[in-house]
Amino acid sequence: MSIFPTRILLATDGSEEAELAALSAVELAQRTNSELHVVHVGVVPTLLVSYPGTLGYEGKLYEQIEEDSSELLRKESWRVKAAGGTVAGAHLRMGKVDLEIVALAKELGADLIVMGCRGHRGVRRVIEGSVSDGVIRHARCPVLVVRPKRSRRRRFANFREDPLAELHRTP
Q1: 7-168 is classed in which CATH architecture?
Q2: Average pLDDT over residues 100-111
């Protein structure tokens, strides 16, 4: 067993943080001569999961989510290739994001999972949860969580200049 990964799984959601994670995954894969797999998990609304047979379960809503997710995966795979990486496999999953990522990592025998983190805090984190926390908690391999280089000092400096600036920012 090597300390360097031979198979890396990049989990992406198309966000800015996921793009940073992709760049890190490409660089790691190149330096360690590892296979790079990309996964995107389409989020199925609780209504569709909880009540099979309801209107839309096998209909247009699920198909649209799957189609949009497939398109996002295609774009993210292309971005990895444009950054100089080689995609060994592009995987689309539907369901609970953290569990699907961990399940695929196990199926592939991934040595490392790379993913971005939006860094939600407080009430927003409690409500939305943290995908990266769930992956870290359940994964059997190491997880690299890539965070943007936002300075706390810069964020609070803006707050001091205009106390309402933080309230008016769009997420």
Answers
A1: 3-Layer(aba) Sandwich (3.40)
A2: 97
